[in-house]
Write a structure and sequence with these properties.
heterodimer; A: alpha+beta; Uridine Diphospho-n-acetylenolpyruvylglucosamine Reductase, domain 3; Enolase-like, domain 1; 5-stranded antiparallel β-sheet; 4-stranded antiparallel β-sheet; 11 helices; 14 strands; B: alpha+beta; Aldehyde Oxidoreductase, domain 4; Aldehyde Oxidoreductase, domain 3; 3 domains; 7-stranded mixed β-sheet; 5-stranded mixed β-sheet; 30 strands; 29% helix; globular
């Protein structure tokens, strides 16, 4: 029998995580409860962190935005102060029912390479604050993921905050392809952010999900695009390079070849949307 | 009865619609009986092998477990199937024939306990290299999956002289077409609940499609006489052909366990169980050759069809016959030779699924008609029109209908409404380098009734109470297709009562004649005829009683709006409730049990020439698509679906059936494929097996053609299955047209589209 614990504060939650041997934090439970039900995950107690006020909500703090990890995907998708790529990514996950329960922290800590908030967080300069009974650290989003379902979280450590720098002149966008038009797991997803002024793209960041064991940035393409005015040649080169840089697998959802083909389309579509102009190349 | 009708042809909401959308409808998994136990089957997990040892001792000692059933514990023959000799064991061993074979049934106080215990069963299996390719399974040296070899069933259709036909041909086209395994993907997975009664009988509540079939197998496998078994069908969340064999297995096992324990036993499949342990659509390999004259007249067609039946025969024999008869399409082809076989492989078994072999062969046939049109430089619509079956023309089995052949009308409707060929020219006028448009046509037919599958009988009951309300019973089942509503409309029309006064009860095998399976789009046609007959008998009582009350002959009286009235003086009315009360006290029968029997199929079993189906549904589809050549994604811009349904009983019901079948056809043609690797299903869940969602809903517009058949109530013919095949074939032709590439394999997924484009 699995025990279910509702802590009254973040500190209490961290104490429990510290003391309990096989305890997992539970937020929306849209992934975790299935794993527990199927006995894929062996767990003795579930710690419900979904209602802890310290972990819920979107807050503007000085030069950054702080998102509580227990904020639901539905709330992330409908928070106007959040960048477009993150809102769009969150809105693409599952169904309305899933988004009403599932949380952004859950999507991050589940560390599936196809998580639709992950590539946006990578291109938005996201940083994750991790806390345990013994202390706290902050890491860039890119350093957090180790592989499918694997992160740098250590025992007793909890994701307590997602921090995004406020960059008012940076635009971002998100694109995804799945088996169908909605309620679908990404075969590939892609996020771009950049400053777009006077026809020149500056400081672009590009990340792709479902294309490697973790969501990845593509620095080689970022270098190609930086300072460019996006002529057909540049775009063609960048699209091909994106396809070449990813390391997709072939599984029941899509072949590696298909993922490489469509990532070019996602890239072009994302760039069109970012710059509000048709992009071919 | 004189037109216009009061209820027939009116758009009425489902009579059980409120229950369904409010959650008040209770399904098998919702039913509560004190002391109910839960049971879970332990599955083999190997596609092929030999079970050397089955150790259930640890499972027996596991908390909450009250019983573990193994083959030795079963009182009956431990066999089920559709046609004798039955070949599917309830609990398998020693031969393992597919991954989903059940080895033992664990019965426990809770579902969790049963699942935990099932995982403790030790099954020592020596794996064999599985036979997965149907063509390989047919080789003489192949290992025999069943004692008599790997050929499940084979039939031939011969019409005219195919060699002579091809010798006349000026153009010949030939290709091989392939289709994949499609899952039923109903919302409600299979479920049964067996309740032992205090009088020694057994009641089995089952999410099933064919309760009488279930009753027979439960009786045989539990050792009870069939008359001591009652099967009740609660609300069912979809079946599409799927809830025959799997539920038969579950009902027999639950029944055996319940009788042994004296307690109710329930089995509810998980989605994974449903993928592994139920019966899906046959994958097909269809080699097709068609010969024509330069003027577009088709003179000959030859087909070899190979159906992958998986581990057990199930419905394979009947699917063989249906594919055999339908591969010629709705065309008058004088010379035909068709060979159709189903074979055993070490895969999930194939069985009945909406369309029943017709979607596979329609895709092949209609793809080839387009290929022929290209070869002849002929307009594809004209080519279909030129060869279309009409009244008085012999179809593939040589059967000639003198009425109810509305194919040309459906073709004309899609031509006019679709503005063919202008729409084709417009679609190809664009020059977008990324998005390509195309238009696809398909024509098809589908036999209504059991046809070559055997006798076609249905029982129905109609009883009128003294208050003028009506209870209708039928031996065929409501599976979501709206048959309850259609039956209520038929009874309401004949008895002159308002629809609200009619109840159509759930099927209960105690109360109505064995009506066979709910299949073959026959419920409205043959079942509706039985309700029509029973209602007519009770109507006679009401008219005679009203005649006595009016002091007028019965012929002068009409029934309608809950009233009896004089035809010539409609102000003279008596409430029907008063007539019914008087009829009861005067001694007129107010209940009738009717038995409808469709004309028997009469044909040569060697050549399949003769009278097979009592009617055909004919259809024509037009679909316009836009293909994204960067992603392979397809958007359906337009879909016209015209079918000759004889008579529309309920326009809303017909539209629902057409739209639902069309969406399933889109899944078959574009999205869905059960992936099996080394005999193991890789996508046994709805995250990886993606059916169309609301984002993929089609802009389907239904165009009715009503060429009445004398064999259905008010002329009606079934519509449940046909639009699936039409949609799938039109989709394939539309995508092929958009890209200028002939796709010969379904599903045409975005990935396959890019593979074809990128080379």
């Amino acid at each position: 029998m699995v025990r279910y614990i509702t802590p009254h504060s973040l500190n209490e939650a961290l104490q429990i995580l510290d003391q309990e041997e096989h305890c997992l934090p539970l937020a929306g439970g849209t992934d975790l409860t299935l794993l527990v039900r199927d006995r894929t995950v062996q767990v003795e107690c579930l710690l419900d962190i979904s209602k802890l006020p310290e972990l819920v909500g979107v807050h503007q703090e000085g030069g950054e935005i702080r998102i509580g990890p227990s904020t639901t995907l539905a709330d992330v998708a409908s928070s106007p102060q959040l960048p477009t790529a993150l809102r769009t990514g969150a809105g693409w996950i599952g169904s309305p029912q899933i988004r009403a329960l599932g949380t952004i922290g859950g999507n991050i800590c589940n560390a599936s390479p196809c998580g639709d908030t992950l590539s946006p967080l990578l291109v938005l300069g996201g940083r994750f604050r991790l806390r345990s009974a013994g202390g706290e650290r902050e890491v860039p989003a890119e350093a957090f993921f180790l592989g499918p379902k694997r992160t740098i979280l250590t025992r007793g450590e909890l994701l307590v905050g997602i921090h995004l720098p406020r960059e008012d002149d940076r635009r971002s966008t998100f694109r995804k392809i799945g088996g169908r038009g909605a309620q679908t797991i990404a075969q590939v997803n892609l996020a771009i952010s950049a400053c777009w002024r006077e026809g020149i793209l500056r400081q672009p960041r590009l990340a792709v999900g479902s294309a490697a064991p973790t969501p990845i940035r593509i620095p080689a393409v970022e270098r190609i695009l930086d300072g460019q005015s996006l002529g057909d040649e540049v775009i063609a080169e960048a699209a091909e390079r994106t396809a070449a840089e990813i390391r997709p697998i072939c599984d029941q959802r899509a072949s590696d070849r298909y993922r490489r083909w469509v990532v070019r389309a996602l890239f072009r579509d994302a760039l069109s949307s970012l710059t509000e102009q048709e992009v071919y190349g | 009865m004189t037109a216009p009708f009061r209820t027939i042809g009116q758009p009425v909401s489902k009579i059980d619609g409120v229950e369904l959308v409010t959650g008040r409808a209770r399904y098998t998994a919702d039913l509560q009986f004190p002391g109910t136990l839960q049971a879970v089957a332990r599955r083999a997990g190997f596609a092929a092998g030999l079970l050397h040892r089955l150790d259930v001792e640890e499972a027996r000692r596991s908390p909450g477990v009250v019983l573990v059933l193994t083959p030795a514990d079963l009182p009956g023959p431990n066999l089920i199937g559709i046609l004798p000799p039955f070949d599917q064991p309830l609990l398998a061993g020693p031969e393992i024939r597919h991954e989903g074979d059940s080895l033992a049934l664990v019965v426990a106080e809770t579902q969790d306990q049963a699942e935990a215990a099932a995982s403790l069963i030790v099954a020592e299996i020596e794996p064999f290299p599985p036979l997965l390719d149907p063509e390989e399974a047919m080789r003489p040296e192949a290992r025999k999956i069943h004692p008599n070899g790997n050929l499940t069933f084979a039939k031939q259709l011969l019409k005219g002289d195919v060699e002579a036909g091809f010798s006349l041909a000026e153009v010949i086209v030939e290709d091989t077409y392939r289709t994949s395994v499609q899952d039923h993907a109903y919302l409600e997975p299979e479920a049964v609940l067996a309740v032992p009664e205090s009088d020694g009988r057994l009641t089995v509540y089952a999410s099933c499609q064919s309760p009488f079939h279930l009753r027979g197998h439960i009786a045989a496998n539990t050792g009870l006489p069939a008359s001591r078994v009652k099967v009740v069908q609660p609300f069912v969340g979809g079946s599409f052909g799927g809830k025959d064999d799997a539920v038969t297995e579950m009902g027999s096992l639950a029944g055996a366990a319940a009788l042994k324990l004296g307690r109710p036993v329930r089995i509810v499949h998980s989605r994974r169980d449903s993928f592994l342990g139920s019966h899906a659509r046959h994958a097909a390999i269809i080699h097709l050759k068609t010969g024509a004259l330069r003027d577009g007249t088709i003179v000959a067609r030859q087909a070899e069809i190979l159906l992958d039946g998986g581990a057990y025969a199930s419905e394979s024999p009947f699917v063989v016959m249906k594919a055999l008869i339908h591969v010629a399409g709705p065309y008058k082809i004088p010379h035909l030779r068709v060979d159709c076989r189903a074979v055993y492989t070490n895969k999930r078994q194939a069985g009945a699924m909406r369309g029943f072999g017709v979607p596979q062969v329609t895709f092949a046939s209609e793809s080839q008609i387009d290929a022929l049109a290209r070869e002849l430089s002929f307009d594809p619509w004209e080519l279909r029109r030129r060869n279309a079956l009409t009244v008085g023309e012999a179809n593939a089995t040589g059967q000639v209908f003198q009425e109810s052949v509305g194919l040309i009308q459906t073709l004309e409707l899609v031509k006019v409404e679709g503005e063919w060929p202008a729409c084709w020219e417009k679609a190809h006028a664009g020059s977008n380098p990324r998005f390509k448009r195309g238009v696809g046509l398909a024509a098809m037919m589908q036999g209504i009734s059991n046809g070559a599958e055997g006798v076609d009988v249905v029982g129905a009951s109609v009883q009128v109470s003294q208050d003028g309300s009506v209870l209708v019973g039928l031996g065929l089942t409501e599976l979501g297709q709206g048959s309850r509503t259609a039956m209520a409309q038929i009874a309401a029309e004949i008895l002159g009562v308002r629809l609200e006064k009619i109840s159509v009860r759930q099927v209960d095998t105690d109360t109505v004649h064995d009506s066979g399976p709910t299949v073959a789009s026959r419920t409205t046609t043959v079942g509706g005829k039985a309700v029509w007959m029973a209602a007519q008998a009770v109507r006679t009582s009401l008219l005679e009683m009203a005649g006595l009350m009016f002091k007028a002959p019965a012929e002068a009286i009409e029934l309608g709006e809950d009233l009896a009235y004089l035809r010539e003086n409609q102000e003279a009315q008596i409430p029907l409730a008063q007539v019914a009360t008087a009829a009861y006290w005067t001694g007129f029968p107010l209940m009738n049990l009717a038995f409808s029997r469709a004309p028997d199929a009469q044909y040569d079993h060697e050549t399949h020439q003769g009278q097979i189906y009592i009617a055909y549904n004919y259809g024509a589809h037009l679909m316009e698509v836009e293909v994204d050549t960067w992603t392979g994604k397809v958007r359906v811009l337009r879909h016209l679906a015209s079918h000759d349904v004889g008579k529309v009983i309920n326009p809303l019901g017909v539209e629902g059936q057409v739209e639902g079948a069309a969406l399933m056809g889109l899944g078959f043609a574009h999205l869905e494929e059960v992936l099996q690797e080394n005999g193991k299903v890789r996508n046994a869940n709805f995250a990886d097996y993606q059916i169309p969602s609301f984002a993929e809903r089609l802009p389907t517009r239904f165009l009715a053609v009503e060429e009445a058949t004398p064999n259905g109530p008010f002329g009606a013919k079934g519509i449940g299955e046909p639009p699936l095949a039409g949609t799938a074939a039109a989709f394939a032709n539309a995508v092929s047209d958009a890209l200028g590439i002939s796709f010969t394999r379904l599903p045409i997924t975005p990935q396959r589209i890019l593979e074809a484009l990128e080379g």
